[in-house]
Design a protein that fits this description.
Blueprint: H1 5-8, E1 41-47, E2 51-54, E3 62-68, E4 73-79, E5 85-93, E6 96-102, E7 111-116, E8 120-126, E9 131-132, E10 136-139, E11 143-147, E12 152-158, E13 169-175, E14 182-190, E15 193-199, E16 203-208, E17 213-219
Parallel strand pairs: 9-11
Antiparallel strand pairs: 1-8, 2-7, 3-6, 3-8, 4-5, 4-7, 10-17, 11-16, 12-15, 12-17, 13-14, 13-16
């Protein structure tokens, strides 16, 4: 999907280029339920049209619970202190729900630019609100999971996004357990895909996808 393109330009060469986005002819009537119960809300913003919202949370890693109820285009960009776009967190159409991780690297997010044609909401919670990965998990879209085990082999499966001509993009990164620091890239693929990657120990797993994906871990 196009919403990964800006991040991909900063990654090593060899990543498969993405094609354009083809939207589905049918859109579900309402957004899926939130992906996790989350924790205490640090900041809550919302609206029903385009908006630039200042982030008031401290400059530390946080998880964003993002939902959209509209039937049209929905885009969320993370902006720095100069209001330059750092990365695109969401680029999709129709009702949608996902979780995103921000401030987990050297790029501090100070504002969010939302482009939407219907009701939307974003809630910021601490990284401790990440759902625990207990052996295996399946998620309908982007999510942040907490892995607390030792070294193991992660088996990943991206089912793909049926709305995208190329099947959608799948990017999975790991970060330190407190979110402060990138550790490794587990997957970086276009379209349906399955494969394995090593997990060296406790970490946060941030998967970005517009379609369903799953992960299971086999300890060594």
């Amino acid at each position: 999907m196009k919403w990964f393109q800006r991040d991909r330009e900063e990654r090593p060469a060899g990543v498969v280029p993405l094609s354009g986005v083809v939207k589905s002819e049918s859109v579900p009537g309402q957004a899926p339920p939130p992906l996790a119960a989350g924790g205490p809300v640090l900041q809550r913003i919302g609206g029903d049209s385009d908006q630039v919202a200042r982030m008031t949370t401290p400059a530390e890693p946080v998880i964003l619970d993002i939902t959209h109820q509209g039937r049209g285009h929905f885009v969320v960009d993370a902006l720095d202190a100069g209001l330059h776009s750092q990365s695109q967190l969401v680029y999709t159409d129709g009702p949608f729900a996902c979780r995103a991780l921000v401030n987990a690297d050297d790029r501090t997010v100070r504002a969010l630019r939302v482009q939407a044609d219907g009701p939307w909401a974003i809630e910021a919670t601490a990284v401790s609100s990440a759902a625990a990965l207990d052996g295996a998990a399946r998620c309908p879209a982007s999510n942040v999971l907490r892995y607390e085990g030792g070294p193991g082999i992660a088996s990943l499966c991206h089912e793909g996004d049926p709305r995208a001509e190329d099947g959608g993009y799948f990017l999975v990164d790991t970060y330190a357990p407190d979110g402060n620091g990138f550790l490794d890239e587990l997957a970086n693929h276009v379209g349906p895909w399955r494969g394995e990657a090593p997990l060296t120990g406790p970490c946060l797993i941030y998967a970005r996808s517009d379609g369903p994906w799953s992960i299971s871990v086999q300890p060594l």
